[in-house]
Design brief:
96 residues; mainly beta; Nuclear Transport Factor 2, Chain: A
């Protein structure tokens, strides 16, 4: 859902314009911490741990940067819309 989709599209286009490809591995363990009274929204929290992230050149395929990742708390709103659950908003918080 917008504006999240617009932000993601912009980031992907920016990375493509630089001729870069990113590869990374995340570990996830999300859990619901709240729900709206009408049940159409749930709020999810997770400590997303990026084990490693690497940047590659799209032309050469060689690694150009990256390295150790980090762990951050993400809070996400998931909304029921037109018969499916969609991410409506997400926020990155402090490290975890």
């Amino acid at each position: 859902m917008d504006p999240l989709l617009a932000q993601l599209t912009k980031d992907i286009e920016s990375t493509k314009a630089k001729g870069e490809i990113w590869r990374f591995t995340n570990t996830l363990n999300p859990r619901v911490y709240a729900q709206s009274k009408d049940g159409t929204k749930v709020y999810v929290i997770d400590c997303v741990n990026t084990l490693a992230g690497y940047r590659y050149s799209a032309k050469t395929g060689k690694r150009t940067g990256g390295g150790p990742g980090g762990a951050y708390i993400y809070r996400t709103t998931v909304q029921y819309d037109s018969g499916t659950w969609k991410v409506a908003a997400t926020t990155r918080d402090r490290t975890c």
